[in-house]
Protein 1
Amino acid sequence: MIATKSYAAQTKTSPLAPFSFERRDLKPADVRIEILYCGVCHSDIHQARDEWGGSIFPMVPGHEIVGRVSAVGSAVKKFKVGDLAGVGCMVDSCRTCVSCQASEEQYCDNSQTVWTYNGRDKDGAPTYGGYSDQIVVDEAFTLSISPKLDLAAVAPLLCAGITTYSPLHHWKVGKGSRIGVVGLGGLGHMALKFGHAFGAHVVQFSTSPNKVEDAKKLGADEVILTKDPKNFEKVARSLDFIIDTVAAPHDLTPYLGTLKRDGVLVQVGVPNKPLEVPVFPLAIKRASIAGSAIGGIKETQEMLDFCAEHNIVSDIEIIPMQKINEAYERVLKSDVKYRFVIDMASLAGA
Ligand code: NAP
Ligand code: ZN
Ligand code: ZN
């Protein structure tokens, strides 16, 4: 077993604090990764505070993991010691159902997706995430990372990146599309970058006046401040597609008013309470509300390769592990530009 340092939440009300545990010894298909950086996703907060229910404690959050391969099992083919590698939100699945065979492992038809943390491995052991100095993962769920990009800024691509790239692709957003991005946070700023890179006209919706200039620099063609309902009139019935990244309960009605006939609003933010569905604005335009969860391993690799080719990374603020509780409070106040990333070197002294 491999002694591992981390930060964990012991209960849903306790702050994260140092925690030691053991990773499994390498199986033939496993790689061991020395974690160098891990992004801080709003899902970490939802789960550490048990806002979705069913959380497993102690919990070591973190599913935006990048680092360097430090050991490989005897059957590993894709990686060698010293390679850069990444791990996202999942570390295994049934691998045999229709969805897994289609590399949509996050939608495993047998409900056997093994989440990187707050999940259980096939042997029943709890999984622990990336707020730690190393991780052991099957190579089939390990991603290759290009050395061309700033490694710390790549970390958020493993969740925020793929969660926004995947639905934009699925709904065929491209040149000529007019899209909306709701919320300029970790996911939102990646949706904005991808939408712009795919050639769409992007309207950024935000509650924060102090983010308007940034939104334009990140690629927004228009910015709508949502606290004044009149501002929505400027883009009424003009959008083909909206990606909504908001983590808190909110009214969908004004956003649905900006969709064209047959428009689609994809909810990727996962508030802890159900959202109300206003039916009139859907019915009068044959509009749809959909959901989407991260993306499969194949598509995640494709997204990472696209980012390496187009020089796309996340805008980040690097923090030491010891500042994680403060960082959570700032995320909750929408005060992050635009993703916190933990420098795991800070764990050495913990
Ligand atoms: P985040 O960095 O906190 O960003 C959310 C943004 O939403 C905020 O920065 C803020 O942007 C806006 N916002 C916050 N409260 C709001 C409110 N009450 N009304 C309207 N807008 C509000 O969070 P994130 O890491 O991007 O995650 C967003 C959500 O996606 C979370 O619920 C997370 O669990 C979920 N998620 C889902 C998936 C998936 O696979 N579906 C994957 C990852 C994360 P402005 O300041 O611009 O308004
Ligand atoms: Zn996430
Ligand atoms: Zn499956």
Protein 2
Amino acid sequence: MKITQITLVMMFTAMLFACNQTKEKMDDKKQEVEAIFPKGEKGSKDLFTGNAYPTPLLNADSVYNTLIGNVYFEPGARSNWHIHPSGQILIITDGVGYHQIEGKPIEIIKKGDVIKCPPNVRHWHGASQDVGLQQLYVIPDTEKGIVKWYEAVTDDQYSASNLKNEK
Ligand code: MN
């Protein structure tokens, strides 16, 4: 092999290596979700599947009957089924996740989305399989109640989101 050929092979190998490294970095990046608010304590396994970190940010008081908090869902994590007697607004600040109202298809939610969960409707929300989710929640009219919890979202119910992704 001539020297120029060897040099070309070496250059090509170096390029491949560089590409692989970039790809790995991008894959890592895909998992990362930026935090704006404190992560808080891991939520109870009685209320969440996987690792979810709910953090209250603002409690209702005599002036504002509104509750605000943040939840970080690691990939694969989701809430149990639940209802909010006065409804709930979700503001997605980073990542990709799912929201499902019972009986309706799973909806993909991502950074920048704002979603209304109607009052007294069974629903769940959480991260996608590969990317975590940062979501702010706003609960108005807290005098009507905040949340009523039900059973966990099964793996079958959760993985129905894969079908939607493939479309
Ligand atoms: Mn909810």
